[in-house]
Amino acid sequence: MRHLLSTRHLSRDAAIQILDIAEDMAEVSNREVKKLPTLRGKTVVNLFFEDSTRTRISFEAAAKRLSADVINFSAKGSSVSKGESLKDTAQTLAAMGADGVVIRHQSSGAPQLLAETGWIDAPIVNAGDGTHEHPTQALLDAFTMRRRLFGTTGGTSGTTGGTSGTNGGSRGRDLDGISVVIVGDILHSRVARSNLWLLETLGAHVTFVAPATLVPFGADTWPAAISYDLDQTLAEVKPDVVMMLRIQSERMNAAFFPNAREYAREWGLDDVRFQALAPDTIVMHPGPMNRGLEISAAAADSAQSTVLEQVTNGVSIRMAVLYLLLSGDREALL
Fold first, then answer.
1. Binding-site sequence positions for L-aspartate
2. How far apart are CA 44 and CA 41, in angstroms?
3. Are 322 and 260 part of one and the same domain?
4. Is residue 187 part of a domain?
5. I want to staple 3 with a disulfide (CB 3.0 to 4.6 A). Which of 9, 11, 64, 124 is the partner?
6. What are the CB-based long-range contacts (under 8 Å, 24+) for 88-91?
7. Annotated binding site for carbamoyl phosphate: which residue ranges?
8. How far apart are the C-alpha atoms of 180 and 307, rounded to whole Å?
9. Broadest EC class (predicted)?
10. Binding residues
11. What is the CATH classification number for the domain harbouring 73?
């Protein structure tokens, strides 16, 4: 694997290999000394043109646990604020000897541009580009689902899968037959898009629920069911996973719904909707959460919530991705 830019063209075998390697990385993270010497002498640059807390820190922790040197680059306070182009920034990083670049950018397609132009001869990881994709978020979400539904050491799966004890828990498993309902700001969500492509590849069934104004044009051609009624969807689908999305007000230049109160009433996972879910339904959110708008405190803090697990699992997934890109067999996943 040369780069990780998208989940859309990631094969099932490639996705499962990343998830399985992440299982090994999770074991490392549970050790007293959370370190592997794998990337000693390598330099990973976190090139962030957008604000981020979870993703940047997660990639930094992942690289350091693999013994890489890390350079954190923020557009604010850098030459980018003086008008420096992406090309010049990339060539500067190349001159400094960057071995891998993790990039978050406000423009869709920026990571692919960086990967295809040859401005820097290093593996590129897309940490979120505009409203396009966020592949490692989708991978950590799938990893979290797989662990919750199938366990890590064997046993019986959740509501739709079979037994998993014969092959060592979740290792080697896809998400065949799992039902996932993704609710909220689909229009602006790169998380929703990456999850859709990956979940389809892994065999899950996806339903998007949102106000009509927050459903992208052309979404009816995507491999997902579209609904505008959350209560009806939850009653009919009886999902294994409910994923709530953040309302991305920073990307909105118009009123997409009348007010926050109406949004919470129609499309928020409030206490009543949460209590009506099956007791083994997983509740997810990529964060940061707007409590009381997208999700109630009771749902976010419940035993069914995986919000903090997603943060923990993000480090393991990103360790797996950096391992494959910087030291693993790059050809194995092409």
1. 82, 190, 246
2. 10
3. no
4. yes
5. 124
6. 89/47, 90/114, 90/117, 90/119, 90/120, 91/119, 91/120
7. 54-55, 104, 134, 137, 287-288
8. 16
9. transferase
10. 54-55, 82, 104, 134, 137, 190, 246, 287-288
11. 3.40.50.1370
